[in-house]
């Protein structure tokens, strides 16, 4: 299992609209794979949203992202210009960790 941690740096005040856009688009994206976590920052680097997606491997990630990219309801319709920077990291869990998602979902 791998996890993609995506961080978006937003303009000040843009988090509510970005979260609303994600909430609207998320059911369409979860047809392909469930989200593991979604957060926004309150302390530390401000104006960030972070979302986490779990995949079996990089091949599954590529396939799912290609499929989801064909969906007219994905990606979320964040107001143009509100995303300053996007960063994606692939994380490997320690061998003793259980998969995130389902009963292990974070952010609830």
From TrEMBL:
<dbReference type="InterPro" id="IPR012577">
    <property type="entry name" value="NIPSNAP"/>
</dbReference>
<dbReference type="GO" id="GO:0000423">
    <property type="term" value="P:mitophagy"/>
</dbReference>
<dbReference type="InterPro" id="IPR011008">
    <property type="entry name" value="Dimeric_a/b-barrel"/>
</dbReference>
<protein>
    <recommendedName>
        <fullName>NIPSNAP domain-containing protein</fullName>
    </recommendedName>
</protein>
<dbReference type="GO" id="GO:0005739">
    <property type="term" value="C:mitochondrion"/>
</dbReference>
<dbReference type="Pfam" id="PF07978">
    <property type="entry name" value="NIPSNAP"/>
</dbReference>
<dbReference type="InterPro" id="IPR051557">
    <property type="entry name" value="NipSnap_domain"/>
</dbReference>
<feature type="domain" description="NIPSNAP">
    <location>
        <begin position="3"/>
        <end position="96"/>
    </location>
</feature>
<comment type="similarity">
    <text>Belongs to the NipSnap family.</text>
</comment>
């Amino acid at each position: 299992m791998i996890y993609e941690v995506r961080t978006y740096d937003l303009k000040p005040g843009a988090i509510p609209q970005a979260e609303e856009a994600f909430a609207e688009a998320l059911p369409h994206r979860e047809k392909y794979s469930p989200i593991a976590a979604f957060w926004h920052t309150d302390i530390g680097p401000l104006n960030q949203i972070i979302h986490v997606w779990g995949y079996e491997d990089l091949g599954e990630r590529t396939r799912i992202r290609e499929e989801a990219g064909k969906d007219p309801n994905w990606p979320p319709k964040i107001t143009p210009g509100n995303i300053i920077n996007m960063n994606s990291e692939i994380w490997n869990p320690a061998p003793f960790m259980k998969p995130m998602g389902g009963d292990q979902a974070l952010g609830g």
